[in-house]
Design goal:
This protein is α+β, with helices and mostly antiparallel strands. The chain has 4 helices and 10 strands. The longest helix is centred in the N-terminal third of the chain and has 15 residues.
């Protein structure tokens, strides 16, 4: 089990049971004596890929072609078009992997997107640009600089894919390491 999973499962159980009491029944306490207990993620569905539709600001978690979850997201400050270089504030388009998890990021959890891929590097080199990097799927900033409404009503990242913190917990738990993410216009 990955580090932080027990804590995230506890957070997920609390938030999910508030939204749908039947969800809590899939989170099984292992210690029935009422003391501290661990949580078992075995009954959580694991996605096999993610699809981001930028124009819809919608991130889908998929399993065997079916949608498991759908999340509203915020994108880079300049969301139209694909990321071409460092500092263009665009969210990339293409097929990538979710490669590295960071529970200690400047945002509430983060998972790195494998941008730039080979095609991105060729385009950047052809134009003599620096391709950039550090594209993540993440939650809200740990130290917000704006009121909460700003983060839910506008594209605000440097090119990343931002979810609410509760959605990020769920995304973290349901997405395996090295899962494919397809980002479409």
């Amino acid at each position: 089990m990955r580090p932080w999973t027990h804590l995230l499962l506890a957070l997920f159980a609390v938030s999910a049971s508030a939204a749908d009491p039947s969800v809590a029944s899939t989170i099984v306490p292992l210690n029935a004596e009422g003391g501290a207990h661990a949580l078992e993620p075995a009954s959580l569905p694991m996605a096999d890929r993610a699809v981001l539709h930028k124009s819809e600001r919608r991130l889908l978690l998929m399993k065997s072609g079916a949608v498991l979850r759908s999340y509203r997201v915020a994108l880079g400050l300049m969301p139209r078009g694909t990321k071409e270089r460092s500092g263009d504030f665009k969210t990339p388009e293409g097929v990538y992997q979710l490669t590295r998890r960071n529970p200690h990021s400047d945002y509430f959890l983060s998972i790195q997107v494998s941008y730039p891929n080979a095609e991105d590097l060729v385009r950047a080199q052809r134009n003599r640009w620096v391709a950039g990097g550090s594209i993540m799927v993440h939650g809200m900033p740990n130290t917000p600089r704006h009121p909460p409404d700003y983060y839910t009503s506008t594209d605000w990242t440097d090119g990343c894919i931002a979810l609410s913190n509760s959605d990020m917990v769920e995304f973290w738990l349901l997405s395996p390491d090295n899962m494919t993410i397809e980002i479409t216009p």
